[in-house]
Design brief:
This protein is an alpha+beta fold and 44 residues long. It contains 1 helix and 2 strands. It has a two-stranded antiparallel sheet with strand order 1-2. The radius of gyration is 14 Å and the shape is elongated.
Length: 44
């Protein structure tokens, strides 16, 4: 949709917890298979 609207995608990152975060909260391990956030940088 962004590309269709004339944007150029410059970066995509599937953010997930770091190893130290998982060590403190083991339940976050499942977020490695299902990232919590999708960060997209785009410009027009």
């Amino acid at each position: 949709m962004l590309i269709g609207l004339g944007f150029t995608i410059t970066h995509v990152e599937e953010w997930g917890p770091a190893d130290d975060q998982i060590a403190l909260q083991p339940e976050l391990e499942e977020e490695r298979d299902r990232p919590m956030f999708l960060l997209i940088s785009a410009k027009k």
